[in-house]
């Protein structure tokens, strides 16, 4: 019935007529037909048509599938820690894994998941005694799945563990034809595998069973209707010599019928769901709970609760990427191993002391902060644009924290993270820790521009006398997206915000005044608000060309295209993932740049497209030479080429300036400068900044990452045990409040009609959806 509802949503009131008929065989005895026929479905406006008889299905007796089943999450680790200080050297992490070519879609910032919720599975078996049999801790292997690749929904039908099916009697294309029965003597590798098979069998049959006995040696289950017409029973025992579990007694199949229709099943607990969703989590650790929930409901025919699926995902992540708590203690050894593998790597671990009864516990230390970067990133930044964007993003997992990232950009507009830090949150101390090491190890170049938001912690760190970020050594600029978001908190209306952004993007003072005057006519208070911020921090016409046209930070693009999913991983897996994904990124982008160089190209594809667009407009100009020695011209537009036009522009090829502002802002010839080059019969390529040359782009990715040394060869770590700070653990129960600061950037279009979350039709919600299955929505039939 539920399957029919999903396949034919247009049928409001499905009806089913079934009759049980004995078929007389040729030998004269009563026999059950082994084929299944079904006739169903009608609506309130069309009578249901059903066959007069529906023979009963009797499954063939086959060996039950024996899926491997993995255990409970190991929650505990010590409570506290001393202090460890591991300074830079060389570093390297895990082998390269796949990197997505583009943004697969923004991560739902609201979809924050709690770190622990009590089970609601209703399992009658006691606490599962589990031993980790699948996956393993992050220290046990260096091979991590390519969870940056696009989500493959077919993965949910693939094997969860090599050589074992995901569940008992997995449904095939014909529906129930793949269901099988247990056999006496059938063997399982361990108790967890046996339990998974029994539970999956119960779910597939749509029946309930109860546990009569369960310990480390035997497991006995009976049908819930045992003694009331059903004799289904299974007894499994441990064979000590072989260490395997075996079916000793089996009375089956079930002869009872379900007494009620339910959308959930008691045996569909988070252990069963975890085994099913494992391939999906392995393919993409950032897959949302909603996707996993819907996939589980479609596969099993029952819809579990949100928190049960959340627990299943957390278990799957722990099995694939390692235990959350143990992951912190693996960081010191990873630092030693990666520095041994790739000399020049910088990895700086800070810990804080653990105090027990007022005394410092020397055997343990709380994780505090970690800064890391790799030699290829340090080398790459020397050939990128002389600017860096900095921002932070929250971690989603068992423990809170913030991932700080410094992002650069090459001459082909490819974003590239060049340094990382795991800190407790965004404050003056954490930003000072990150920026001081960033300046020391990655960005020592003078005259560097730092683009960031207006966070007070960043301001304090950049203005520190000994930080090295004060002018003229470095300059600061604000991300206009954050400025506009702050502006919208005081002044409502999208038009005013648009005017402010247009003024910020203006490349000349004349154009800036044009937009600012319109903003002043709307409300003088808006201009007063903007005037409180130094123009050099948020406007393009006052930045002296340091921005290279970049007005925002690239944190969202970086997280979605290169670091997608890392915020959902345990910390050591997160750190290792940055190594592998950047290694793949360098391989791909380096190969592209090398191929372009091989075809004789001189400039990046980004620059070529911009020059081609400017050349189209440069044919509509009248050029007048005024100073041949200094290459100074005037260019008159015969036809306006944009929404804002001065009509006549002064161009100086010698000083690389134009009244339009594009030449000095972007550091390559604008359309007016191209017209002057054509008039003077000189090549425009000599007026392009060297960062746009394809050779410079190639040098960004020229230094590759070294294949990691196996973890068995890493130096031993003899310091105190590093444990997470219990104060950073997220709420144990319920869905936590989002850590995202809501701004107008997160607001939906108020004119957009609200749609049902189930059928996507307007006019109602999921709760009142007419397509929702259940007795209360079937028209009283």
UniProtKB/TrEMBL annotation:
Residues 743-752 have a biased composition (Basic and acidic residues). PROSITE patterns: ZF_SWIM. Residues 649-681 form the SWIM-type domain. The keyword Membrane does not apply. Residues 26-49, 722-781 are annotated as: Disordered. Keywords: Metal-binding, Zinc, Zinc-finger. PANTHER family: MUDR FAMILY TRANSPOSASE, POLYPROTEIN, PUTATIVE-RELATED. This is SWIM-type domain-containing protein.
């Amino acid at each position: 019935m539920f399957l029919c509802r999903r396949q034919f949503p247009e049928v409001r009131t499905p009806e089913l007529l079934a009759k049980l008929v004995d078929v007389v065989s040729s030998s004269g005895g009563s026999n059950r037909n082994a084929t299944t026929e079904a006739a169903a479905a009608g609506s309130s406006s069309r009578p249901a048509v059903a066959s007069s008889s529906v023979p009963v299905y009797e499954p063939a007796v086959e060996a039950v599938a024996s899926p491997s089943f993995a255990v409970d999450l190991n929650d505990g680790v010590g409570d506290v820690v001393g202090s460890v200080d591991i300074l830079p050297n060389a570093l390297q992490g895990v082998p390269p894994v796949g990197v997505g070519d583009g943004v697969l879609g923004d991560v739902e910032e609201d979809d924050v998941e709690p770190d622990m919720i009590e089970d609601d599975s209703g399992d009658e078996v006691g606490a599962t005694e589990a031993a980790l049999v699948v996956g393993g801790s992050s220290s046990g292997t260096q091979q991590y799945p390519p969870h940056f690749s696009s989500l493959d929904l077919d993965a949910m039908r693939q094997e969860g563990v090599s050589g074992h099916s995901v569940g008992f009697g997995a449904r095939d294309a014909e529906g129930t034809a793949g269901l099988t029965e247990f056999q006496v003597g059938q063997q399982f590798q361990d108790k967890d595998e046996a339990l998974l098979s029994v539970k999956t069998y119960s779910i597939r049959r749509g029946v309930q069973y109860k546990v009569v006995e369960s310990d480390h040696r035997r497991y006995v289950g009976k049908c819930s209707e045992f003694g009331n017409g059903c004799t289904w029973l299974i007894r499994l025992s441990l064979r000590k010599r072989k260490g395997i579990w075996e079916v000793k007694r089996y009375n089956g199949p079930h002869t009872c019928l379900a007494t009620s229709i339910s959308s959930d099943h008691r045996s569909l607990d988070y252990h069963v769901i975890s085994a099913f969703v494992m391939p999906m989590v392995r393919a993409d650790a950032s897959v949302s709970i909603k996707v996993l929930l819907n996939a589980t409901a479609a596969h099993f025919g029952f819809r579990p609760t949100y928190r049960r699926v959340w627990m299943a995902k957390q278990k799957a992540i722990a099995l694939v990427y390692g235990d959350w708590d143990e992951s912190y203690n693996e960081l010191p050894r990873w630092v030693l191993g990666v520095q041994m593998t790739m000399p020049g790597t910088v990895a700086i671990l800070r810990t804080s002391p653990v105090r027990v009864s007022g005394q410092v516990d020397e055997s343990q230390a709380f994780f505090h902060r970690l800064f890391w970067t790799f030699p290829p990133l340090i080398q790459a930044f020397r050939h990128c644009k002389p600017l860096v964007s900095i921002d932070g993003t929250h971690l989603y997992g068992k423990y809170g924290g913030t991932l700080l990232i410094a992002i650069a950009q090459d001459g082909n507009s490819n974003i590239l993270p060049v340094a990382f830090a795991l800190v407790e949150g965004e404050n003056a101390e954490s930003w000072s820790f990150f920026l001081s090491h960033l300046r020391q190890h990655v960005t020592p170049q003078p005259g560097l521009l730092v683009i960031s938001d207006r966070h007070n912690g960043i301001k304090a760190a950049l203005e520190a006398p000994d930080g090295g970020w004060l002018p003229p050594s470095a300059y600061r600029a604000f991300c206009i997206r954050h400025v506009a978001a702050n502006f919208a908190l005081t002044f409502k209306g999208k038009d005013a915000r648009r005017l402010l952004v247009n003024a910020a993007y203006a490349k000349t003072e004349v154009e800036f005044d044009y937009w600012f005057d319109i903003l002043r006519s709307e409300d003088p208070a808006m201009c007063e608000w903007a005037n409180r911020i130094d123009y050099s921090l948020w406007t393009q016409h006052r930045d002296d060309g340091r921005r290279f046209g970049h007005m925002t930070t690239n944190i969202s693009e970086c997280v979605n295209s290169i670091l997608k999913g890392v915020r959902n991983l345990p910390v050591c897996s997160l750190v290792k993932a940055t190594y592998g994904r950047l290694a793949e990124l360098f391989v791909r982008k380096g190969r592209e740049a090398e191929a372009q160089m091989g075809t004789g190209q001189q400039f990046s594809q980004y620059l070529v497209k911009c020059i081609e667009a400017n050349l189209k407009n440069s044919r509509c100009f009248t050029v007048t030479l005024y100073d041949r020695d200094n290459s100074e011209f005037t260019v008159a537009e015969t036809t306006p080429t944009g929404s804002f036009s001065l009509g006549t522009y002064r161009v100086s090829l010698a000083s690389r300036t134009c009244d339009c502002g594009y030449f000095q802002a972007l550091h390559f010839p604008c359309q007016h400068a191209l017209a002057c080059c054509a008039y003077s019969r000189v090549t425009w390529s000599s007026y392009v900044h060297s960062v746009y040359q394809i050779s410079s782009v190639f040098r960004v990715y020229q230094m590759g990452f070294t294949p990691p040394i196996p973890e068995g060869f890493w130096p031993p770590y003899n310091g105190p045990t590093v444990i997470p700070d219990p104060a950073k653990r997220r709420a144990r129960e319920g869905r936590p409040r989002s850590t995202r600061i809501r701004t107008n950037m997160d607001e939906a279009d108020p004119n957009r009609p609200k749609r049902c979350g189930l059928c996507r039709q307007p006019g109602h919600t999921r709760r009142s959806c007419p397509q929702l299955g259940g007795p209360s929505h079937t028209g009283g039939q």
